[in-house]
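Data card: per-record layout.
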Amino acid sequence: MTTLLHTELDAAVRAVKLAATACQAVAANLVTTDTLSKKDRSPVTVADFASQAIVCALLSETLGEVAIVGEESAGALRQPDQQSTRRKVVEHVRAALDRDASEEQILAWIDRGSAAGDSGRYWTLDPIDGTKGFLRKEQYAIALALIEDGQVVLGVLGCPNLPVRGESGQTGVLLTAMRGAGASIQPLDRDENPSLIHVSGMTNPADARFCESVESAHSSHSDAARVALRLGITAQPLRMDSQAKYAAVARGDASIYLRLPTSADYRENIWDHAAGMIVVEEAGGKVTDIDGKPLDFTHGRRLEVNRGIIATNGAIHDAVVEAVRN
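The structure for this 326-residue chain is written out next.
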């Protein structure tokens, strides 16, 4: 592990922790019990923009002019009818960073996430992965990864609502991984030495538990049920939003994560999988597309040559791929 990667990991961890703080503040102050019923997405919009601004600011200030492929851009936020949302974004960014950054500076930070991501060395960020989970006050993640020449070399997942093992009622974990150095977990809200994690040691696919998206629009539940039947799996699926599913596989809560395409032409965004993928792989698992091919991060913002996702504990990966193919 190089000195540069140490520095980059420290910067990424700090950025994700502060972004999570902002997201938690938005959830506490703006998300109400009728947010979903009113189809009010404004809280997650505020959290999305604030999270991206914070991560881009801290990476740039700590590491210099880095390339960042982010999910958001500030164009829509600059529109006159977005004044209220813009004000809330500024408020939450200032609170998290504990400084009086100007509105224009915060918008510029958001726009730093506009890199193409088609070559060289760059970061990719999902400022809030799992928008419906955020609005339901269930699972969502801040997902940040570093990609070098098409290979994910570092990943950080902040999961504010994922339970802390061994601590009843406590939620919020931070997972980190570096290529060749293993995957670790620690509480999100306090400084503790990270603990190494490992995928489950289960070798019989029939004994597996799989996790999938809550939203059937994201992954075909019916296809997943057929795969489970072929494998002899009887346990109910663990359904959760966001890359928290990768976290569940990495620490052994489940042994399979399926994201099966709902249309032939859909391609996954790189920020939806890069951080989770390296966390699972460094925990001893395996991640491919549904054809068993490695995920290819050399085609810009999408996984253009891959279809769907299969993440497993590794030992049963080939069996799962075969079941999906059939």
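Known properties of this structure: The chain has a mean pLDDT of 93. The radius of gyration is 19 Å.

See the next section for split statistics.
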